[in-house]
Design goal:
The chain is an alpha+beta fold and 52 residues long. It has one domain. 38% of the residues lie in helices and 15% in strands. The protein has 2 helices and 2 strands. The chain has a two-stranded antiparallel sheet with strand order 1-2. Strand 1 and strand 2 (31-34) form a beta hairpin. The radius of gyration is 15 Å and the shape is flat. Pfam families: DUF4291.
């Protein structure tokens, strides 16, 4: 897996100035998605996974 990166300052210039967005990249075989979330959502997801 070789994910291309860029400097945050350069990325920030291309980012939407308002609203929510999801980061993603892809190649011929895969798609990688990143979305930040707050601590309460993360804790809920962990508890849901543990109980299932």
């Amino acid at each position: 897996m070789n994910i291309q990166t860029e400097l945050y300052d350069q990325y920030q210039m291309r980012c939407p100035k308002v609203g929510k967005h999801i980061l993603a990249t892809f190649d011929e075989q895969s798609i990688w998605v990143y979305q930040a979330y707050n601590e309460s959502i993360g804790n809920f997801a962990v508890q849901l996974e543990i109980s299932n």
